[in-house]
Backbone:
């Protein structure tokens, strides 16, 4: 147990020491960190601050957990510094948090090279809490009927919406594609934080009771990971398509499903080559409609099978988009180029850690 005036961090000792398991997990999956302090989960009013990540099966994994008594910038700096030190100084590429200025200041101080993101799940909850009260307001209804909503925003919620707009680079999916985030900002992953903090304690829970709930949660998550690992050794997706066979060999089952969805989408896509004088570079417009209304631009470097797409899906999620897969089909590329296989999504995501242990 680590203790300070304003922070208590619990260590859990299991069959494998939790700190050892957490370090292994962080080495493999620490490129994305979810840090949340919105839960008061005990009778003492302490703030629960779990550190959570996403493993290679796209399931939540626990890196650590803390209790703090306040949400001041100094507290977050201290806590994140301890967390960073305990996890070998590794810096995530993206850190997802709730909307908190002090937390943001702490992150930028301790993790200057990480991108601070805001969880859409929290933003949606906050939006409902801010906008929802207006729906029962007779004055708002009258203004809405009069098609003069701007007055309501100015008088009621303009400050909150202006602040949210000022932070748009941290939550807007269009502005957040230039760095890896495991796809957390995409709509289908919007409740990842809510699912992650599923301890189910309440305000009357004592710390010792919380510890047992926390311990059971971590055990359940790790048991699920073991089951997922066993599944991919026994369950083989049935396919005769060469590139899907390759994807099934390298990716875990859940990630294979995501890849297959992109591949299936590519089958119905349209690709139009654009004229160019460059010999080994091809340019394409790819869309799902024949009228070319919503297109993305794909560049294909034929000599080394390198692709670039304006959707930036690979940069953001680590999986190829259907736009690129469409061009790969056109050129009979039946295997995923090695540069586009992100190890953290593969069956051997922890192989580097295994190798390190064997060399000791």
Residues:
């Amino acid at each position: 147990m680590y203790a300070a005036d304003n922070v208590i961090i619990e260590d859990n000792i299991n069959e494998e020491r939790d700190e050892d398991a957490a370090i292994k997990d962080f080495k493999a999956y620490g490129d994305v960190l979810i840090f949340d302090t919105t839960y008061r989960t005990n009778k003492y009013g302490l703030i629960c601050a779990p550190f959570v990540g996403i493993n290679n099966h796209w399931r939540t994994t626990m890196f650590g957990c803390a209790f703090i008594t306040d949400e001041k910038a100094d507290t977050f700096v201290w806590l994140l510094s301890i967390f960073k030190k305990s996890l070998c100084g590794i810096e995530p590429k993206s850190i997802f948090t709730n909307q908190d200025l002090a937390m943001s200041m702490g992150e930028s101080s301790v993790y200057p090279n990480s991108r601070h993101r805001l969880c859409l799940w929290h933003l949606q909850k906050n939006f409902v809490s801010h906008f929802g009260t207006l729906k029962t307001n007779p004055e708002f209804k009258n203004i809405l009927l009069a098609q003069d909503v701007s007055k309501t925003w100015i008088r009621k919620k303009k400050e909150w919406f202006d602040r949210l707009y000022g932070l748009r680079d941290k939550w807007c999916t269009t502005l957040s594609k230039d760095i890896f985030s495991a796809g957390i900002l995409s709509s289908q992953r919007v409740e990842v934080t809510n699912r992650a903090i599923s301890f189910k304690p309440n305000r009357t829970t004592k710390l010792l009771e919380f510890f047992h709930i926390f311990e059971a949660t971590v055990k359940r998550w790790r048991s699920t990971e073991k089951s997922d690992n066993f599944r991919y050794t026994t369950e083989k997706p049935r396919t005769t398509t060469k590139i899907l066979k390759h994807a099934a060999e390298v990716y875990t089952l859940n990630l294979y499903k995501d890849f297959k969805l992109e591949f299936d989408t590519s089958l119905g896509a349209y690709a139009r080559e654009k004229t160019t004088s460059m010999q080994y570079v091809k340019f394409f417009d790819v869309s799902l409609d024949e009228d070319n209304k919503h297109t993305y631009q794909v560049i294909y470097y034929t000599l080394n099978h390198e692709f670039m797409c304006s959707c930036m899906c690979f940069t953001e999620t680590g999986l190829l988009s259907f736009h690129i897969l469409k061009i790969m089909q056109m050129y009979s590329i039946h295997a995923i180029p090695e540069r586009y296989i992100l190890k953290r999504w593969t069956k051997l995501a922890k192989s580097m850690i295994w190798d390190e242990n064997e060399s000791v």
